[in-house]
Amino acid sequence: MDCIICEKRIVNENNQLQNKVRQFLKTNKQLDLKHQWIKEWKICYGCSEQYTSERLELDAVVIIEKMKLKRKENQKKKQKGPSQSFREDYIRKYIEYATDKSEEKGRYTLYQPPLKNRQQYDKAYIEYVERRESLAVMIVRDLVKTIDTRGYWVDVRHLEEHFLTDFDRDFSFIIVELFQRVLKPDYPKKMIEETDADYKNRIAYITWKTANADIHSQRTRGIKGDVYIILPRLKNEHEDMYDKHFIVWDSKRLVFRRVRIGKEYVNIIKPPKWSYEIVATEKINHQQLRYIEKNMQKIVRKTHKERNFTLSIFRPQQR
Ligand SMILES: [Zn+2]
Q: Which residue has the higher pLDDT, 47 or 219?
């Protein structure tokens, strides 16, 4: 703190000054202006010796004006906060950090718990899950409204990912064949030590084994199921949506902080929510399926050229 009269910094004068005030109070019972100011730490020891109360009263207007100015200056310093470049630097880094975090927090509307304790599954089943055929089955079973899969097994005949996609579940097309459910899976009860996710996986595995056996037995008997082409489109339901992140300057700790609500904010991309839109589905016969399988490379190449292709690429070109 600076002396209000001489503007010198007051250091270690507190005890001396407070003694002066106590002495004065003992003899006078009431503080005069000078000692009032000393008590409030506004005058240095030197000035307290030089000045009389009368003199201070004469100068009071000037001094009070000085005090007001000083207070304003301090206020300004507080309000001014961090420099513009510091703020910009912080905001830039914050946006980078928060965007990364937000992208990590993305979730899928169709979800299968990861397989733990792999030794309890067939190699073929692990592949089925890892190649995301299980997900393709979920898409057809749960999202495609035009195909009624109740009472049917969904056999994935072909699953193609989009060319040069950033996402590992971005399918360009799915071809499935449906077989009537003849065999019934025998589901065990949940074990006490088993988590919900582990049980869900075990049930899915048993279903897959039953389906596989059933489909295999029907195929060997020459049974052919209905075949469908499905064009799913991976879609972020939160596309172009932003969250407001409120940032304040903490003038006590001299740091920026994120708060629940405030005046200043930055727009941070909302964590993505991935779902599928079914662009088209079509039932095809086995002759068409044979054509597609024979020309698969050509068809896939066409999907590389045009991301938003239509079902027409699966048909022979008419000239
Ligand atoms: Zn002074």
A: 219
* pLDDT band per the 50, 70, 90 thresholds, residue 45: confident
Regarding whether 164 and 23 lie in a shared domain, the answer is no
Q: Which domain holds residue 72?
A: 14-80
- Could you tell me if 181 and 285 lie in one domain? yes
Cα–ligand 1 centroid distance for 77 (angstroms): 23
Give how far Cα 152 sits from Cα of 101, 120, 211, 278, Å: 41, 26, 9, 20
pLDDT at 294 over 80: yes
Q: Are residues 114 and 64 in the same domain?
A: no
**36 and 152 both lie in a single domain:** no
User: What CA–CA distance (Å, rounded) separates 109 from 141?
Assistant: 14
> How high is the pLDDT of residue 319?
53
pLDDT at 59: 79
Q: Are residues 165 and 283 in the same domain?
A: yes
Distance 24 CA to ligand 1 centre (A): 19
**What amino acid is encoded at 222 in this protein?**
G
What spacing in Å lies between the alpha carbon of 58 and ligand 1's midpoint?
16
116 contacts 267 by C-beta, under 8 angstroms: no
Number of residues that make up the chain: 319
Shared-domain flag, residues 190 and 149: yes
Q: What is the pLDDT of residue 42?
A: 78
- CA 163 to ligand 1 centroid distance, Å: 79
Neighbours of ion ligand 1 (CB under 5 A): 3, 5-6, 44, 47
Q: Which pTM does this prediction carry?
A: 0.67
Residues 20, 21, 23, CA angle at the centre, nearest 5°?
Answer: 65
